[in-house]
């Protein structure tokens, strides 16, 4: 009977994990489930990215004393503990197996579980800090739950991708912009409450959205056909994703020959340089039969707009200006407003809005 109850509990927890579609919520749900099934002093979930022989390891979420938080709230580890943990995670990645060790400055055990994606590559790692070393059966259960998490994540990822290019699709874009706007509002409120807090440094990193459009694409389609036009779209997508942007930046297929890039930069100059890099990489590539293909880009800071539609609309205005100015260039919405080339929409006062 006890075995049956524990089985039901595991199934219920798996159902809870697969109830969510947002990645960050899914990560926290995974830690909540593992903490309920296998009580721990702490649980940490890390993202693993391989770059040649190096591993880029970054914290996604953690659970301490039954409280689950995102990476931003994690207390800084001392250098010895961080080095010890990194070395153990690297060992687990290299061995492609579970690794356990006794941390030098903590009691109990750290057990490290690698998580594999659909291609058999390690994409995440779970660090389970507990007083007693888990039994082999418990370790297999944790490993199995990580497999369910990885498989479900792959399904979510597939549903969010454009079939032609493999980039994120338009539906996912609105969700991401909304998330940024909501987080900015929340972060700004916290900043106002504690202006000397370290949050000021995090808030200094801004989000920028750029609409990228392939120049004279209709002519390419009319001259060479739609199949070749699709090949041009695929190649431009590959050029943008192959080292042009950073891992944390996002590219979306917006529709037709248009793409949207969401990136982080500290200021307008850095954002302009990032979008210029995209424009230059495409312009300098030699396309079969065509030679040069260029893109025009309009971008805007994601800040204080009312909705994703407003953000994209402002970037579109900057793109329209880039097209009119001769194509193959980058235009910044805020600079265009400052120069009087386009007019900023009037802000609606709350007293002017009638409900019902």
Overall tally of domains: 2
Say which CATH homologous superfamily of the largest domain is assigned: Reverse transcriptase/Diguanylate cyclase domain
Return the string of H and E elements.
HHEEEHEEEHHHEHHEEHEEEHEH
Low-confidence runs: 1-5, 348-356
- Major sheet description: 6 strands, antiparallel
CATH class of the largest domain: Alpha Beta
Question: In one word, what is the shape?
Answer: elongated
Evaluate the radius of gyration.
Answer: 24 Å
Overall structural class, as computed from helix and strand content, comes to: alpha+beta
CATH architecture of the largest domain: 2-Layer Sandwich
CATH topology of the largest domain: Alpha-Beta Plaits
N-to-C terminal Cα separation, in Å?
57 Å
Task: Bin the helical content.
Answer: 40-55%
**Average pLDDT taken over every residue:** 86
Please tally the helical runs, counting DSSP H or I stretches of 4 or more residues. 11
Strand tally, please?
A: 13
Could you give the order of strands across the largest sheet?
3-2-1-6-5-4
| Strand proportion | 15-25%
């Amino acid at each position: 009977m006890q075995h049956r109850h524990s089985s039901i509990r595991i199934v219920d927890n798996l159902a809870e994990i697969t109830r969510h579609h947002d990645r960050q919520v899914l990560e926290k749900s995974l830690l909540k489930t593992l903490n309920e099934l296998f009580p721990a002093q702490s649980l940490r979930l890390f993202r693993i990215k391989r770059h040649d022989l190096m591993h880029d390891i970054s914290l996604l979420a953690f659970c301490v004393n039954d409280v689950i938080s995102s990476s931003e709230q994690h207390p800084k580890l001392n250098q010895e503990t961080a080095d010890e943990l990194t070395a153990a995670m690297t060992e687990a990645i290299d061995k492609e197996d579970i690794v356990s060790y006794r941390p030098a400055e903590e009691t109990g055990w750290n057990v490290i579980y690698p998580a594999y994606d659909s291609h058999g590559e390690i994409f995440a790692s779970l660090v389970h800090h507990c007083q007693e070393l888990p039994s082999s059966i418990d370790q297999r259960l944790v490993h199995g739950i990580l497999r369910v998490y990885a498989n479900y994540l792959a399904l979510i990822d597939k549903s969010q991708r454009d079939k032609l290019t493999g980039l994120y699709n338009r539906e996912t874009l609105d969700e991401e912009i909304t998330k940024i706007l909501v987080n900015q509002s929340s972060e700004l409120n916290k900043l106002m409450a504690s202006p000397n807090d370290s949050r000021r440094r995090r808030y200094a990193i801004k989000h920028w959205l750029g609409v990228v459009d392939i120049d004279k694409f209709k002519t390419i389609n009319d001259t060479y056909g739609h199949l070749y036009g699709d090949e041009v779209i695929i190649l431009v997508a590959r050029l943008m994703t192959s080292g042009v942007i950073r891992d944390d930046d996002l590219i979306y297929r917006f529709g037709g020959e248009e793409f949207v890039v969401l990136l982080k930069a500290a200021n307008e100059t850095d954002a302009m340089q990032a979008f210029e890099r995209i424009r230059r990489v495409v312009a300098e590539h030699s396309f079969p039969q065509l030679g040069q293909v260029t893109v025009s880009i309009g971008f805007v800071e994601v800040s204080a707009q009312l909705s994703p539609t407003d953000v994209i609309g402002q970037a579109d205005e900057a793109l329209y200006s880039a097209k009119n100015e001769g194509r193959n260039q980058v235009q910044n919405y805020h600079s265009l407003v400052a120069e009087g080339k386009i007019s900023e929409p009037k802000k609606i006062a709350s007293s002017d809005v009638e409900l019902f």
